Every structure is written in structure tokens, then in C-alpha cells.
TrEMBL record:
Belongs to the glycosyltransferase 29 family. PANTHER family: ALPHA-2,8-SIALYLTRANSFERASE, SIA-ALPHA-2,3-GAL-BETA-1,4-GLCNAC-R:ALPHA 2,8-SIALYLTRANSFERASE. GO terms for cellular component: Golgi membrane. InterPro entries: Glyco_trans_29 (IPR001675), Glycosyltr_29_Sialyltrsf (IPR050943), GT29-like_sf (IPR038578), Sialyl_trans (IPR012163). It is found in: Golgi apparatus membrane. The chain crosses the membrane at residues 7-28. Its main location: Golgi. Disulfide bonds join C155-C306. GO terms for molecular function: alpha-N-acetylneuraminate alpha-2,8-sialyltransferase activity. This is ST8 alpha-N-acetyl-neuraminide alpha-2,8-sialyltransferase 3. One of its GO terms (biological process) is oligosaccharide metabolic process. Keywords: Disulfide bond, Glycoprotein, Glycosyltransferase, Golgi apparatus, Membrane, Signal-anchor, Transferase, Transmembrane, Transmembrane helix. Pfam families: Glyco_transf_29.
Amino acid sequence: MVRIANALGLVILSVALLILSLISYVSLRKDSFLSSSKYDMGGPRIMFHAGFRSQFAMNFLDPSFIPLTNALNEELQGKPSKWKFNRTAFYLQRKEIFHFIDIANNFSLTKNGVRVGQLMHFDYSSNKYVFSISNNFKSLLPDMSPIYNKHYNVCAVVGNSGILTGSRCGNEIDQADFVFRCNFAPTEVYYKDVGRKTNMTTFNPSILERYYNNLLTIQDRNNFFLNVKKLEGAILWIPAFFLHTSATVTRTLVDFFVEHKGQLKIELAWPGNIMQDVNKYWKTKNLSPKRLSTGILMYTLASAMCEEIHLYGFWPFGWDPNTGKDLPYHYYDKKGTKFTTKWQETHQLPSEFRLLYKMHGEGVTKLSLSHCA
Ligand SMILES: *[C@@H]1O[C@H](CO)[C@@H](O)[C@H](O)[C@H]1NC(C)=O
Ligand SMILES: *[C@@H]1O[C@H](CO)[C@@H](O)[C@H](O)[C@H]1NC(C)=O
Ligand SMILES: *[C@@H]1O[C@H](CO)[C@@H](O)[C@H](O)[C@H]1NC(C)=O
């Protein structure tokens, strides 16, 4: 009996495998059909690529994206860019943002603003999750907001989209007075495209888990130490109270910084529960995703510190609007990494993009999508 059952199991397994391989064969064929048809037709290549791929993207991403493609095509064709800054419109937006959130004050918790033993909650988690403020944590908080009374002329906010690969925008980005980056993105081997300067980067505590093995070995700790050291002089903006899943790694991070106090000349900023207020502003622009992207959050912060904001690396689609070629999700993804749409579960990057593009059209901010001169 047992033998028969085993043999039967084997047969069922083989049939299942056969069906699976048939399915993947068919979907492979479908992909190659789609990709060959998009390259074989004639016509003005750039226009065609962008238009066609946008329609292609539309099916999977966001129906509201499609009316944008003609304007986008014209914009990309019309080099040099005819973008003009409208300071009035930018100031108007800043005033509207200030109506919902006091950015200078809400940029970071401060020593005086918390007490040891206080239970913090998380913006995006159930209220049952808490984080108790420890002496160590408190000791890492700034005495006052690191951006209090700080004003810069032109700021660059650099998103991590694969569109930066080969953009040669590094010089232009470095010319900004203050450069914002997202999620501790590497710059070292990408200088030409993304620049060298970093004046502030966000650091989601989960980065320790994903890239530094929770600092469990000496090598992990050294790696992390050296990578933070490279950012000396910059602000590390650590959203520890957005998601309860950060709680454990936040303790690891706090211990690390307490241990290395004095050895790392980096300014730490720890925002509290600010997302509700930030969301309120963007909701007035009909943007209300489950979670805003780090990029648009940086833009929100920058609006209080900068006289003019230029955006780079904001492009949430898996194809280059200039050439139609496939793009990886991040500029630092390894070659061959495919664009993924995992973010769709929580983010609405295409809607964010559409809004930023609209702001670009109104002269509120400059959105760079083509290669830099
Ligand atoms: C600049 O923006 C303001 C406010 O949105 C608007 O009234 C004005 O017409 C804009 N100016 C130009 C030149 O577009
Ligand atoms: C934001 O700033 C205001 C004061 O302007 C303060 O009352 C509030 O508690 C701050 N919120 C957070 C989350 O830091
Ligand atoms: C920004 O960072 C660069 C180094 O990356 C530094 O030289 C520059 O002084 C910083 N600017 C400001 C305004 O802090």
C-alpha cells in the first residue's frame, strides 16, 4: 500500500511539474511576443516607445497615467528643457504644507520633547504596539531640531529610480546647496550619475536587517561603521516610529550609536509620529495611498528648508521614457535585476509621479527625467 501511495504521489508530482512548466512556457512566449512587437514597428522611435510603453504600463499600473504621456513626450523632445521656476506657486505650496505640519519642529524628536519610559506608538501599525523610550535612546536625540533656522537656496532631492543609471546627472546634483537622499542609497560607484554630495539621507532601521545582518558579526559592524563614516557631516533621518517591525532593529541601532558616540560625526534625527499630518496635506492634492513614498516625504521636508527644489530619480516605471529600454527598480540594483511592482501593495507611486509631474508643469518643482548635459 505504502509503495503504491508513493508511486501515485510521484505521478501526481510529475503531472503538476509538467503543467507548471507548460504555464511558464506559455507566459514566456507571451513576453517575447510583446517585446518583439514593441521593437519591430517603425515610426519615430522615442515617441513611439514612450507612448506604447506607457499604454503598456497603464494596463498594470495606473489608468490615470495615460493622459500624461503626450505632455511627457513633448517635454522629453523639447530639449533644452523649457521649465521655468514659479516662485509664487512654490511659496503658495509651502504655505499650504505649513498649514498641516510644522516641519522645522516635527523634523525630529528632541531631548526635551520625550521622557524616559514614555511609550511611543507607530504611524502605520496597530495601537497595541509600543516602544518604550530608554535612557540610551533619549541620549541620541538632538537638543533642538537640526533644521531649525536652516535655509538653503537650491536643493536636490534624489530618489532611487533606475532612471538615474547612465543619466550623468552627478555634477548637476552636486551643484545643489543641499542634497537629500533616500534610504541610505549608495553613491560611491555611481558618482557620475547620482553625485557625491549627501547632506541628508533617510535611514529606515530595517536596513540593518536587510543589509547588515542585524550587526551580528564584527564584519557587519565594521561595514556599517565605515558606511556611516562616509556620511560624516550629514543628517541621518531615522523613521523609527512608522512601523512596529522596526522596534527590534531600532534597539540594535541605538546601542550601536551609543557605543560609537564621538567616533561618528553624524547628526541623528528621529521623527515622531508625523505621517498623519503629512498625509493630510497630500490628501488635499487627492493623494492618499496607504503609505506615501520616502521620496515625496523628503520633498515635503525640503519645502520648508529650500528656496527651490529639483527632483532626480523619481520615475516608478520599468522602462526608460527616453529610450524605451527596460530599467531596474533602483539605480544601484545589480545588472539584470528586473523592475518589480511589490510596492503596489502599499504605495501609489504612479499617482505620486503624476502629481509631481503636474507640479513640474506648474513650475513648482523641477523634475528631471532626461539625461543631464
Ligand atoms: C505662477 O503661479 C501663480 C500661483 O499658482 C499663478 O497665479 C501664476 O499665473 C503663475 N505664473 C506663471 C508665469 O505661470
Ligand atoms: C509637531 O510640532 C508641534 C509644534 O509645532 C507639536 O505640538 C507636535 O507635538 C509635533 N509633533 C510631532 C509628532 O513631533
Ligand atoms: C553638503 O555635503 C557636502 C559633502 O557631501 C559638504 O561639502 C557641504 O558643505 C554640505 N552642505 C551643507 C549646506 O551642509
